[in-house]
Amino acid sequence: MKVLKFGGTSVANPENINQVKAIIQNEASEKIAVVVSAFGGVTDLLLNTSEYASNQDLSYKKGFKEIEDRHFETIRKLIPVKEQSTILSKVKSDLNTLETLLEGSFLIGELTPKLSDKIVSYGELLSSFIIAEFFKAEGLDAAYKDTRELIKTDANFGKANVQFDTTVHNCNAYFKTAQQRITILPGFVSSSGANDSTTLGRGGSDYTAAIIAAAEKVDILEIWTDVSGMYTANPKLVKQAKSVSRLSYEEAMELSHFGAKVLYPPTIQPVLNEGIPIVIKNTFSPEDEGTQITKNTNGNGKTVRGISHVGGISLLSLEGPGMVGIPGISKRFFETLSQEDISVVLITQASSEHSICVCISDTDVEKAVNSVNDAFTYEIASHKIKPVIVEKDLAIVALVGDNMKSHQGLSGKMFSTLGKNNVNIRAIAQGASERNISAVILKNDVKKALNALHEIFFEENIKQLNLFVMGVGNVGSKFLDQIKQQRKYLKQELKLNVRVIGISNSRTMYFDEDGISLKDWESNLANGKKADKSLFFDKIRELNYRNSVFVDNTASEEVSLSYAKYLKNSISVVTCNKIACSSDYTYYKQLKKLATQYNSPFLFETNVGAGLPIIDTLKHLIASGDKVNKIQAVLSGSLNFIFNNFNDSVSFHDIVKQAQEEGYTEPDPTIDLSGVDVMRKILILARESGHQLDMNEIVSDSFLPEESLKTNSNDEFFETLKKNETEFQKTYKDAKDENSKLKYVAQFENGKAKVGLQKIPIGHDFYNLEGSDNIVLFYTERYPDQPLIIKGAGAGAEVTASGIFADIIRIGNF
Ligand code: ADP
Ligand code: ASP
Ligand code: MG
């Protein structure tokens, strides 16, 4: 014999029930027992409706009507017309009783657990009856059996305890004589000694099936549901989760106990005792292998088999100096909870015995706090123990696997992964069996924690990076192009899955929680919501994705001032915007500190020399113990372009104009020509070398006339250039007469920085600098005479985008 159980979704509607029929028809076993749940959603509906009734809220009638319609409609769709009337009248009569019960509850304004069980049992009673009639009408050799006549329990309504001896006896007696091949039975329901309907707890149809399977010592118990087995994590929260083909009973028990809803936890015990395998299968994809649960499987050598979580958890802590070394405190604590029938999900105790923490369900908190505070009234009054401390809105995530005990470092890996993702761990516990390591975390962090852990333990170490890109103009759009082009490579070679989740320009913003398609982001963005910098941030925080990176491709001061709040929420920041790093030293320092504190890198390689690895190199020098003595650099691609092309046959005005038009300058060219841009860059290099410096301490020797610096528009500015052409030509001629070239040089030495135009003689490292190239010479203790030189294209959208890209990869390797 074989037992098959079909859950709520599997029998949710006529179409699905037909699917169930197909599975049953394919079944080769000689005899089968088919346990079914209520039609999907009906149990909740019954419970809500009875709640309304007992609150004397007339909307219970609406709920009842909905229940009635669901069942009538299913009968009309499944059963041939000529056979409908008897079935409809039997169901109608049951529904009348149900209505009377609800009405009774409405009139007296009360819902006892006993009445609640009676009401809720109609879900399974009706579904199983209708399905049995349908199978019969389809010519299957099927009969209906009311499980309440088989499974006997105590009178603990809502979650009754099974009396196995009587139950086994009843089952044996019934199946021994049953003639039909297929027996259809309602799950979840049972009856007490006094023959009142009882239920086995939410999700209890799995348990019904297991009880019958064990009683009849069947060959196999199949749980048919809406997923293809027990997954490495809840597939609704972790997209990458995969079905695990084999699990041991103990592993399955731990996983289900810690929230893998696919199997109701008590289900395993009865079949484990008899060594009956459980197979979890997908009604909607029957060809999938599913999960087989048997005695020790050795886990195919794998350590962590699944990650599960339970929500709705509160942490109670009992602490105080009076607890140390005094026996009996924990006994009294647990006794109090047990007397109140409060189930303890997890326990931790500090070895100092100074505190005991337990996790309980949120719904038990009030009861627990009152009873424990009562039980310790004396100790609390005499300050030996503090009143119970409660933390709500928590969840437990647990790693489960039989083989975990023989491996070191798993908890280290688990906690460091959670830490890196800034998941705050409130308590931890590891069972002595070492089959389970649990962490208590905030409810809001569950999705992030599960995904981060899943990535580390199951996904060949592919790390997902979630990017939020602000600014998709010149640089930003090139950056998106580069990601699009390199995605496959990054995944295959660097094990990085780079996804762009949000983008924004100054007009609109657009999000796709599954990753924006980089083929048509432009049209999606154009049709996106109105851009709003603060809503952009709110959305990122709300999504709470692991490895979130905010990419700033703007030149906006407002955006640069928002970095702190990103970092504080563990969102890394990558920016080509120089404002933050060249603003107040305290802000720069604060950002660096936050980055360390919140494990969220703050990277700005492109602030100096676009894509050239200048800052990264400097960081490595410093980290390895070197000291920077002097930096000499040509850091402005724009000024370099201008002075490389300026001579006595063209006007300075025209060259600057050309540079602006070709995108070599900032939109406001004075930022480049006044030297501010170069000052910012040398400031950043000085700071990255470990020096405290501010903009106003940098000496700037401007080559521009005073009036050019005071203009209010680009037009005015260009006018002044025309006016002062003779001055510019003179500067050029002076340099030429000395066989030198003009370069705008930044220098940092002995804690002081200066910038200005210099005449560079032949033979100098700067002399042959082409086009818009940048060059930096680092004179350090290790490179005292021959400097370390970095040289190359230092401006342009493409190289800047690649510099940002490099920062993203650095975060990937972080
Ligand atoms: P049924 O109605 O068939 O009994 P349930 O809703 O009780 O189905 O259980 C199946 C659901 O369990 C899945 O749809 C899934 O959302 C959830 N679930 C949670 N954790 C896991 C897990 N680790 N593996 C598979 N499913 C899980
Ligand atoms: N119908 C019950 C519930 O929803 C039992 C089950 O489906 O397992 O809890
Ligand atoms: Mg279930």
CATH class of the largest domain: Alpha Beta
Number of helices: 30
Q: How many distinct beta strands?
A: 30
In total, the number of domains comes to 4
Low-confidence stretches: none
Helix coverage percent of residues?
40-55%
Sheet with most strands: strand arrangement: 3-5-2-1-8-10-11-9
Average the pLDDT over all residues and give the rounded result.
94
Chemical compounds bound to the protein = adenosine-5'-diphosphate, aspartic acid, magnesium ion
The secondary structure category is: alpha/beta
Reported CATH architecture of the largest domain: 3-Layer(aba) Sandwich
The geometry reads as elongated
The Cα radius of gyration reads 36 Å
Which range does the strand content fall in?
Answer: 15-25%
How far apart lie the N and C ends? 55 Å
Give the CATH superfamily of the largest domain: Acetylglutamate kinase-like
InterPro entries: AceGlu_kinase-like_sf (IPR036393), ACT-like_dom_sf (IPR045865), ACT_Aspartokinase (IPR054352), ACT_dom (IPR002912), AK-HD (IPR049638), Asp/Glu/Uridylate_kinase (IPR001048), Asp/hSer_DH_NAD-bd (IPR005106), Asp_kinase (IPR001341)
Subunit structure: Homotetramer.
Enzyme class: transferase
Domain ACT: 399-477
